[in-house]
Amino acid sequence: MNRFWNQYQKEIADDHYFYERSCIRQTFFPGSEAAFLRILREELGKDICDNPHQHTCTGIGYHSDVVPLETTMTVVARLFSLMTECGYENYVPSCVTSFGVFSEMIEKWENNPDLLAKTQQYLWEATKREFKIPKNIVHPSDVIFHFRFDLKPRMKYQLVNRYTGKPLRVVEHIGCHYAKIFPERGIGKAEFPYVLAGMIEAWGGEVIDYPERRHCCGFGFRQYLVQENRGYSIANTKKKFQSMEPYEPDFILTNCPGCNMFLDKWQYTIAEMEHKTFDKEGFGIPVLTYEELTGLLLGYDPWKLGLQLHQVQSEPLLNKIGIAYNPDEKYKGVSGRLLPRPAQPECLRQE
Amino acid sequence: MNVSIIGAGPSGIEAANVLAKQGVAVTLFEKSSSALKNIADKAFLFPNFAAAADIVEIMNKKLLSQNITLKTDTDIVGLVREDNGGWKTVDSKGQSHYSDAVLLATGYTPFDAHRKEELGYGIYGGVVTSLEMEKMIRYDQVVNSLGERPKRVAFLQCVGSRDEKSGNHYCSKICCVTAVKQAIELKKRMPDTEVYVFYMDLRMWGQHFEELYRQSQQEYGVRYVRGRISEAAGTFDGRVQIKAEDTLMGLPLKMTTDLLVLMVGMEASEGTRCLAKATGICGDYGFAQTKDPHIDDCLTAQEGLFACGTCKRPMSINDAVNDGRAAALAILDMAK
User: Fold this and answer.
1) Fewer CB atoms inside 10 A, N or C side of chain A?
2) Which DSSP category does A42 fall into?
3) Which residue of B has its CA nearest to A244?
4) Which fold does the domain B2-107+269-335 belong to in CATH?
5) Mapping DSSP to helix (H, G, I), strand (E, B) and coil, where does residue B26 land?
6) Peptide bond preceding A183: is omega within 30 degrees of 0, i.e. cis?
7) What predicted TM-score, i.e. pTM, was given to this entire model?
8) Interface test with A, best of B164, B236, B239 (most A CBs within 10 A)
9) CB contact (8 A) between residue B114 and residue A210
10) Backbone phi and psi for residue B44, each to the nearest 5 degrees, phi listed first
């Protein structure tokens, strides 16, 4: 996309990253983080530290007003102390909300040195640890974007429909906390963010610009975390799907755990509630993380990427791209033993 | 006495006219190929719907004095005060010109609507600026992105004015009444077209403006919605979906329209910024700063350097003409 705000780029370190995992991604999209580490190490030859002592950033609790600011700052400081101890300066948090929380805390500290001094004191009193503020803090989707042209020659597949020869049509959806809190820290800023669009275009696809492109995925923390508000959540998601439906997207690409989950799982719920899917065939629209997409195009096994754990199954998309997969291994566990097949949804088709 | 005037817009031409009548030799520099570039494509002027072409014709006749030398395609890039108190202007080709006094009439530039990317200008065909709408009206080509007569048109005020995001906190002054005027023009040509104007507050400051605003509602059925549009997006059928908040109703609003007209504000032109900075009279937002806004509004901190028109701040054509006249008098006063 030739956007005016494409000029808004940011500095992305070239190597030596400290990775911080997400609380929820390994549950819902279990192959994504492992794929990111593999891509960085094996495809790009980069150094990335995956420290086993990490923990929550408190993001969900913080944004739900159950974790006070001082606690969040101290927890963030502890995570940074792990990075400092390991000798790294480039922080890469897997989750978009973590990215937003870290960016916010750093902003607070930079603008209010008293808060920084207090945080240092709290961390020292609680853990006897010290920390440095990262020199470079980016989201992993920034890193993949940064290396998108380096990855392209290594890819076995492109975002092209092998039956028609045309580019796949892709809806991209950015997590709110990626660019809406600090627009200048997102590639392309908040109005026409380019981080996912850049990957799609570089790898042969076509980005769909639909009217509700900026609308919330339906998570929005309070919309979902308060049970009584969940109708609000699914209504938001439905609005997005209705808006994108005429454009017939082949799949949705996101960079946020919440967006991934809600755009994927609410399709099942809407199908059950209203007997409605937003694709022509009734399979639903697959929702991929950027790591899953990168891994798929590099030729990684879809089942090792964890695509079978999505609500909307991805075989029609894999077939369109021409990605090889073994249906018999779809539900094979790590031990090699076949796991029980999940029950088939009534209204969301599966192959 | 000889005077250099930089900018052949309404204020520069009017000043040249007054000075020439008093026997002053005037050199009028214009960077474009002709004078009055900013008015040339306008259709009608508020509040009396005078044809812009007629005004341009009258103003051009004022240039016919033998005391006025019009130099078009001449971009003045340097302005220096000489030791003898005179001024040297230097154009982009390196040619110098000397005069006893200089009048800055370097004008404004329309706000670049691309900068409000959430409004989709340059991205969706149905999003146009007020300048483009003016051309559409003038040449009777009011069509949507599909080339069809629009069934619904929405105007949005304050694009690039009174706006924290674009960095312009000031009011551009003419956009409110221009939207009223253009809305009436549309309704005259296409009575069945729905016309909406989204605003923060309507500033009908000039004579007959308030009446025009009322007329637009009572006679033409133009609908006004108090609220800014937060975003525009293209629809599958080539129209524009807009989201706003109706702050009088206290409700969010979503509407699909054939055309969204962005009422772009005024910013200091590149010439204004460059020359005001070079001479140490650069004021807020790059506009030229005058000596005193109340009683010496055409004088600057530099002796022999004067300023008039929209190089100082946003103003209407008639105000700019009057301001040019005032500047000419200030220059004549200096020569006494």
Assistant:
1) C
2) I
3) B236
4) FAD/NAD(P)-binding domain (3.50.50)
5) strand
6) no
7) 0.89
8) B236
9) no
10) -130, 155
